[in-house]
Amino acid sequence: MTAVVAVAPQAHAGTYPERPVTIVVPFPPGGGTDTGARLIAQRLGELWGHAVIIENKPGAAGQIGSAYVARAKPDGYTLLMGNIGTHSINPSLYKTVPYNAVKDFAPVSLVAELPLVMVTASGNAANTVPLAIAAGKREPGKVTYGSSGSGSSMHLAGAIFARQAGVDMLHVAYKGGGPAVADVMAGHVNYAFATLYETMGLIKGGKLKPVAVTSGKRAALMPEVPTVAEAGLPGYESISWIGMLAPAGTPPAIVSKIAQDVRTALADPKVKQTLADQGAVPSGSTPEAFASVMARDTTRYAKVIREQSIKAE
Prior knowledge:
Pfam family, one: TctC
Strand content: 15-25%
Helix content: 40-55%
Structural class: alpha/beta
CATH class of the largest domain: Alpha Beta
Low-confidence stretches: 4-13
CATH superfamily of the largest domain: Bordetella uptake gene, domain 1
Organism: Cupriavidus alkaliphilus
Protein name: Tripartite-type tricarboxylate transporter receptor subunit TctC
Family: Belongs to the UPF0065 (bug) family.
Keywords: Receptor
Strand order of the largest sheet: 1-3-2-4-11-5-12
């Protein structure tokens, strides 16, 4: 599916861009990566005075769209809105990936961090991190947690939680965060690791109890909810993120300009508020800082995937 984001005519200094730019989203419309891409595209179009086209190329956990951009002409006119899955999880999760997450791309900028929240049913008495750990130690292998799918960032957040807590928790994979959350509410699964966007309404409605957020800092949408680290697992952190990349070989000057303009877009109060309302934390960065984030998470999740023999379904 392709959508053209309308822009107001506006002159922009410099020679790039001189024509419309395409941002490929390797997932279907409507998800967090797609929503963030459309928001940034709108603002970039206004800054550049050229249309910014969102092109959805879903499939194979983001591999199809990512591979397409890896093969695109490195001139700055075909970009990728990737995420933690496409560039820090897939390389270890799949035996073969049709792109090299490091060599085939030029990191441009981190766009937003997406904290997760550990939730349980409102009637579950084990509704804190220490109580969840205690339950897991009392009944090894019987305490369950759901996620949006095997190998997803939600699954890995739970896997890291269990490993760090020293408990045997059973993972239940669903085809999406919504079904996982629904089964937590119904009492079929003890916990779920899901996005704030998926759970905020249910938490406010009293149908879910937030146990803790997975980020290093408390979430602005739920400042009263502690982080997992604060609540009993010091050093714990496991979040998702989205970020912009270009094909390897894109001129550094163009990469630098796009990165600067992404940071400008993210500084816009309306953009910041829209992302915040979705539970995201705007996080514009330099290309070098984004590369560091990807490398850190690739190492972190490769270790978890290897140690727990996690496989894609």
